[in-house]
Each structure stands twice: as structure tokens, then as C-alpha cells.
Write a structure and sequence with these properties.
Strand order of the largest sheet: 1-2-3
Shape: globular
Order of helices and strands: HHEHEHEHHHHHH
Number of helices: 10
Radius of gyration: 20 Å
Distance between the termini: 10 Å
């Protein structure tokens, strides 16, 4: 992060605190309240492989009568059914449609890297979610170029080195990518491939 950007962010935080003294500067997690919730719980956008501490609270809560998990992919659905058989699995895409908030679908036709197979093999070796070339191609072709640019820029600015497209993928490197990808609503492997396809965004990193 450039020094001037970080400086202005710090100043902005202090100004917010001065204007709103009731706000806390630290993140509040409220686990004590969450573990005592009752009735029916719906889960959207939380991965059990990355937020197991939250899922442990859910599983250990005897006051929950029903848990609905909204899945995005069939792979995610299969995992939830196997790991959490008491959860009701529902399609998040069906929910978006019912709420009339389904995202616009793009149908792009990108040119993929020539070393796709070797990249995919490395990524699958690091990830618990094994994906194939067909799924990668399908997911990437749904993402327009302007959105790819946005995601790659976020990754460049938020990772420690800003260099995510090196030929050898490290565990720490992939963890950073996974965190950002899941937060942004895309598969980690898809985000990595987008970075490889848009490597010019990373070339001017200092």
C-alpha cells in the first residue's frame, strides 16, 4: 500500500471516530450473541472450509430448529450434504431469482493460457475444492472484462507482494487469493486464472 494512501486512511478513521464516538475502532465479532441465537438460521455466502469456527458454533447450538444453507455450485452442495447432513441445501441462484436480484449474465469467449492444465494441477493440489477445466472455463466466461480488471486490481493492492501470477504457486500465495475470492463471491481457482489471463495488470507493480 502506498504511504500516502495508508496515511489518509488512518486520518479518515480518526475523523470518523471523532464524529461518531459511539463507534468502535476494532472489529466486533459478537460470538457470545451468535452462539445463543434461536429458531431458524439461513446461511448465504459463508464457506464451511474457511469459517469453521462459525460452523462449530452453529453445530453446537441446541436452540436452532433448522439451518438452511444456500449453495452456489453443485460441488459446494455435495460437500455440505456430506459434511452437514442436517442442513437443508437450497440454491442461492433460485433465491436471487425469487428476490428479483439475479445478476446480469455475460457470455464471453476468452482465450485461455496454453499451460492451463499445469496451472490447474497446481491449484488443485493446494485446494480442497477440486475443479476441472470445464467448470473453470464456464465460470470465467460469465465474468466481463471490466469485472476481471476490478478483481485483479483488488488482488494486486491487497496481497503482500502484489505478485500472484508467478509460475510456482505457494501455499501462502494461494491463501491470500482464496480469502479475497471468497469475499468477492468467486471461486479461488477462477480468480487465479483471471490473474494469469490479465497479467499486465500486475506488471507495473512496484
Amino acid at each position: 500500500m502506498p504511504v500516502n494512501q495508508g496515511f489518509f486512511e488512518i486520518i479518515n478513521h480518526f475523523l470518523i471516530k471523532i464524529l461518531h464516538p459511539e463507534l468502535s475502532m476494532a472489529t466486533e465479532y459478537y460470538f457470545d450473541k451468535f452462539e445463543n441465537i434461536k429458531g431458524e438460521l439461513s446461511i448465504i455466502g459463508i464457506s464451511p472450509k474457511n469459517d469453521d469456527h462459525i460452523f462449530n458454533l452453529i453445530l453446537n447450538n441446541p436452540n436452532l430448529t433448522k439451518v438452511k444453507y444456500y449453495y452456489y455450485s453443485n460441488m459446494e452442495k455435495d460437500y455440505i450434504k456430506k459434511a452437514f447432513p442436517k442442513f437443508d441445501c437450497l440454491s442461492v441462484e433460485a433465491l436471487w431469482k425469487d428476490l428479483k436480484c439475479k445478476n446480469k449474465t455475460y457470455n464471453c469467449n476468452y482465450k485461455f493460457p496454453t499451460n492451463t492444465d499445469s496451472i490447474l494441477a497446481e491449484l488443485n493440489a493446494l485446494s480442497d475444492d477440486k475443479v476441472d477445466y470445464k467448470l473453470i472455463r464456464k465460470e470465467i466466461n460469465k465474468i466481463p472484462q471490466f469485472e476481471m480488471n476490478r478483481l485483479c486490481t483488488i488482488l494486486k493492492n491487497e496481497t503482500r507482494s502484489g505478485k500472484t501470477t508467478n509460475s510456482t504457486i505457494s501455499i501462502d500465495n494461494y491463501r491470500e487469493i482464496s480469502y479475497i475470492a471468497l469475499r468477492e463471491g468467486v471461486l479461488p481457482t477462477v480468480l487465479y486464472f483471471m490473474c494469469v489471463m490479465n497479467i499486465e495488470i500486475f506488471n507495473d507493480h512496484e
